[in-house]
Structures are given as C-alpha cells and as structure tokens.
Design a protein that fits this description.
This protein has 222 residues and is mainly α. Helices cover 55% and strands 0% of the residues. The chain has a domain of 152 residues: Orthogonal Bundle (Cytochrome Bc1 Complex, Chain D, domain 2), CATH 1.10.760.10. The longest helix is centred in the first third of the chain and has 28 residues. The structure holds heme C (HEC).
Length: 222
C-alpha cells in the first residue's frame, strides 16, 4: 500500500518535471516558429479558438442591452465601424485592407462571422478586445454609447447590402455624430441640408463638399 502511494507520488512529480522541461524548452530553444506567415497547427488553433469562445460566453452578458437597437444607433455604429474596423474585418461590398490578411489569426469577415455571436458577446468583444489575436479593446478609450452603437451595427451586419452600408457611411468624411451638425453656424448649411433632404442617402450625402471647412472641422472632432 505504502509502496503504491510512493510510486503514485513519484509519477506525479515526474510528469510535472517533464511538463516544466517542455515548457522551458519551448520558451528558450526557439523551436516554435512565431512567424505570422505560418498557419497555427490544428491543435493550437483549436485550443485558442475553444478557449476564446468559452471565455467570452462565460463573461458576456454583464452589460444591459436594449431590447431593440434604434436605426440611429445602427447608423452611428456604421460610421464608427468604417473608421475603426473595416480595414481589418471588411464591410458589405468592401474587402479588408491587404495588410490585415497578413495577421495571424486573420481577422474574420464580419459580414459572415458576426452571425455566430450574440449581441452581448459582440459587445464584450468590442469592449474588451481579444488577447493574443490583435483584436483591440475599444472600451478603455471610447464612450459607452459608441461601443453600444458599434454593437448595434455589427449585430445588423449580416443582413446589410453594400447599398445600405454606402447609404449609412457616404459623405461622412470620417467619424461624425450626425446630430452634432445641426444648430451650428452658417458654414454647416450644406451638411444640414444634405441630412434633411436626403435622409443621409448616398446621392444627397455626396452633396457635402469634402473641402467644406465645417465638414473638415467635424471630422476632426475625435
Ligand atoms: C487590427 C485589426 C483589427 C481591428 C482594427 C479590429 N479587429 Fe476585431 N478582430 C481582429 C482579430 C485578429 C480577431 C480574432 C479572430 C480570431 O481569433 O478568430 C477579431 C475578432 C473580432 C470579433 C469576433 C469574430 C470572430 O468570429 O472571431 C468581433 C465581433 C470583432 N473582432 C469586432 C470588431 C469591431 C466591431 C471592430 C471595430 C470597433 C474591430 N473588431 C476592430 C482584428 C481586428
């Protein structure tokens, strides 16, 4: 009996020592190739993916989401998305930037991938980012309202056409909050006019002159 127990304890210690040896060998030997040009081994990819999904689903949901997102939230989220996300994740009718295809893991095309996640999970991902993937956390330096608008837009993304997206983002000249333009001095006339007459649809929004001083000023208000 005593001998069995001693053998058992020795077995555990040996296993731990082998584990530590493997760990230190990986860290010090340089045998593991960190090049982003090389795909993850299937087991590594599975482990990272499974860990990410389990981690997110056990943490998402702490934030109270509205029952429905408003059209304004989706539209505000669209312009923020165009500025902060589209180069990595693409958008309806728009490929991601070429350099983002050199990332490992490759940022997924959210027009498709967003349908795999609940709104609460999408909110959590945008707010907190994803360690070891290159997905940034937007929570620490963006307003809660903006994170919510991005959540609204990404949740709506799988059903949007490229025309919908163009209509929401055309003439924005970067990231602006639509209502901020109203009530400003005469210089903003063309922007306000476009907003009133065209409901921000593409042709009317194009009436906003990109050289217009005020348009430049509002797009710089980040
Ligand atoms: C620098 C590139 C980059 C930027 C910018 C970026 N992301 Fe990501 N994002 C990633 C990467 C990489 C992943 C992880 C992919 C993986 O592990 O499968 C990811 C994952 C995600 C996921 C989970 C999708 C999935 O199936 O893995 C969502 C949702 C997401 N990002 C939303 C956003 C939003 C919204 C923005 C803008 C506010 C944004 N991302 C900006 C690179 C980026």
């Amino acid at each position: 009996m005593g001998r069995t127990l001693t053998g058992f304890a020795l077995g555990i210690i040996l296993t731990l020592l082998v584990g530590v040896a493997v760990w230190l060998t990986i860290a010090y030997s340089g045998a593991y190739n960190v090049a982003a040009t090389e795909r993850h081994a299937d087991t590594v990819r599975w482990t990272l993916d499974k860990t990410m999904h389990s981690s997110i689903s056990s943490r998402a949901g702490a934030v109270a989401l509205p029952e429905d997102f408003t059209e304004e939230q989706v539209a505000e989220g669209a312009s923020a998305y165009a500025e902060y996300c589209a180069h990595c994740h693409g958008a309806p009718g728009q490929d991601p930037a070429e350099w983002s295809r050199g990332m490992r893991p490759e940022p997924p095309l959210l027009v498709e991938a967003a349908s795999e996640w609940s709104a609460a999970e999408i909110h959590w991902i945008i707010d907190n980012g994803l360690k070891m993937t290159g997905m940034p956390a937007f929570g620490p330096h963006h307003e809660a309202e903006e994170i919510m608008a991005l959540t609204a837009f990404v949740s709506a993304l799988p059903g949007l056409t490229s025309e919908d997206y163009e209509g929401m983002t055309a003439g924005e000249g970067g990231h602006t909050h639509g209502q901020d333009r109203d009530g400003e001095d005469g210089a903003s006339a063309s922007a306000s006019e476009a907003a009133e007459t065209g409901n921000a649809s593409a042709p009317a929004a194009e009436a906003v002159d990109p050289e217009d001083d005020d348009a430049a000023a509002t797009s710089a208000d980040d």
